[in-house]
Design brief:
Elements: H1 18-32, E1 36-45, E2 50-57, E3 69-70, H2 75-83, E4 87-89, H3 101-108, E5 113-121, E6 124-133, H4 141-182, H5 186-203, H6 208-217, H7 230-233, H8 241-264, H9 274-282, H10 303-318, H11 329-341, H12 347-354, H13 357-364, H14 366-369
Antiparallel strand pairs: 1-2, 1-6, 2-3, 4-5, 5-6
Length: 372
């Protein structure tokens, strides 16, 4: 008699969320060796040379990620990039005194053996994939051969995803730059809102990928202003009611714009860009329903929308404009907390931002943080 077996979920489904793909890949690796339990990808930012955790599946230590570091401070990884090699450490506990900081951090969480692979596209380094096991000597040549199809698939999907996201961001950044050319205050405002949003996300212990996407997408929150007339966008004084109505249209314009771009770069059905939609559509929504354009209330306002709303308001309060003076940090904090009491802003997001005075000051006036 024939037997009928359920097929496993296809890992090559292009619509499979990267976090779910990582989870499923780790589960299949666990069938090859049960001690393989942690898989993570660290992305490399060429502009800053920083390495940041982008994806991580670690069932034993949920949410535990290594803090960002400069690639140049990790010569072992630089060597892997240069020589295009993978690295296997058979037993991290064999000589703990010789371990570098990241390996000590891994060992302290119970992982004994380690596999590291660079992800390169041509000459460009995209990041590093780390696989860890709780037993020593796991990554033998035989096991590496068995793991290779899963590793290849994971690296391919991550590389394709990052390339698509880069295309998306480059296209939308051009639109944002057009706005910045018309309004000299816009460009720096967008950059600060992105950094404040990522700071809030980290304080709220969001997954690394979500924090990375906040940093990437939050600066694009106002890109719909490209469609606002100069007489409104560049008006030095306060807007009258009709001008306010026109200015509010930037949200709807931005929503339509990103959908056209997402379709063009084949990301319209990718779950990872949902955060971009939420940032653009909801950064002017309020928890009490008094925001726009949809008047969403309570839980209908996404966490991304709540975070960017706080970042946007804080930056607007603390920066000088032609029609107003910059508020002090204390004055801005008082207003944010009053908006929480009145039911408009999320108190967790406000306190996450206000609880980081030093980082906030560095973002608000970066030149001051580097002064001798």
């Amino acid at each position: 008699m024939p037997r009928f077996l359920a097929l496993p979920s296809p890992l090559d489904d292009p619509l499979l969320d990267l976090r779910e793909l990582l989870r499923q890949v780790q589960a299949r690796m666990g069938r090859i060796d049960a001690s393989i339990g942690r898989v993570s990808f660290v992305i490399h930012d060429r502009a800053s040379d920083l390495l940041r955790t982008y994806l991580c599946h670690d069932p034993e230590h949920h949410g535990a990620v290594f803090e960002e570091r400069s690639l140049l401070s990790l010569p072992v990884l630089v060597a892997l990039q240069t020589r295009r090699e993978a690295r296997v450490v058979d037993d991290l506990a064999a000589d703990p005194g010789a371990l570098r900081e990241h390996d000590r951090w891994i060992l302290a969480r119970g992982w004994r053996s380690s596999l590291t692979l660079p992800l390169l596209r041509g000459e460009q380094l995209l990041g590093f994939l780390f696989v860890n096991a709780s037993q020593p000597g796991v990554f033998t040549p035989g096991r590496l051969e068995a793991l290779q199809p899963l590793l290849d698939l994971l690296l391919l999907r991550i590389g394709d995803h990052l390339a698509s996201i880069a295309d998306l961001h480059a296209t939308l950044a051009q639109v944002a730059e057009m706005v910045a050319l018309r309004d000299p205050f816009t460009s720096l405002h967008h950059e600060r809102v992105g950094r404040y949003s990522a700071l809030i996300g980290r304080q709220l212990l969001l997954p690394p990928g979500d924090v990375e996407r906040l940093a990437l997408f939050a600066p694009l929150h106002d890109l719909g202003k490209v469609g606002i007339p100069d007489r409104v966008l560049l008006k030095p004084g306060r807007l009258d009611p009709e001008e306010q109505r026109l200015m509010r249209c930037h949200v709807v314009i931005g929503m339509a714009l990103i959908e056209r771009v997402l379709e063009a770069v084949h990301l319209s059905r990718d779950p990872s860009v949902q955060l971009l939609r939420e940032v653009v559509a909801q950064h002017h929504e309020a928890l009490d329903g008094s925001g726009y354009p949809l008047g969403l209330q309570g839980s209908a306002v996404s966490l991304a929308g709540r975070i960017v709303a706080v970042a946007d308001i804080y930056d607007s309060l603390t920066q000088e404009r032609p029609y107003k003076q910059a508020m002090t940090d204390q004055e801005a904090a008082a207003i944010l907390r009053e908006l929480v009491r009145s039911g408009k802003l999320d108190g967790r997001c406000v306190e996450a931002l206000l609880g980081c005075a030093e980082q906030r000051a560095a973002i608000r006036a970066p030149e001051a943080s580097t002064a001798p």
